[in-house]
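Final report, Chapter 2: Outcomes

The project's central promise was a pipeline that accepts a single protein chain and returns its three-dimensional structure in a standardized token representation, suitable for archiving and comparison. That pipeline is now operational. To close this chapter, we reproduce one record exactly as it appears in the project archive, with the input sequence first and the structure output second.
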Amino acid sequence: MVVRVAQYTLDVVDLDLMAGFWAAALGYAVDAGGDGSAKLHPPDDRVGAPTVWLQGSGTPKHGKNRLHLDVVADGDPADEVSRLIGLGARPADVGQRSDEGFTVLADPEGNEFCVLHSSPHRR
């Protein structure tokens, strides 16, 4: 037996801001709960894609993430980085050299994630 990633959970301070950002970034639909949380669902054509659970937290993020998302663009990675910055992401420095195969960004609340320049899947 093995496990698979089914959902990514993120503590957030501003639920509306973060739901809007991640829904637009991933192309997911938002199902807001009445309890300060929201679940983001992938489109039906992305079979097996994990959901994202945003749970309200009264405390902001501190320090570098110990776990983060790696995302891959459907098109040109540089265009995707620009699009994400337009949505509210910002470049982040976590000690990368800038010659790696990814670009590090942070979401509006400072959670780092990487835009991969190519798919990480085996070929």
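Archive annotation: Residues 34 and 56 are 11 Å apart (CA to CA).
This record, like all others produced under the grant, will remain available to the consortium after the project formally closes.
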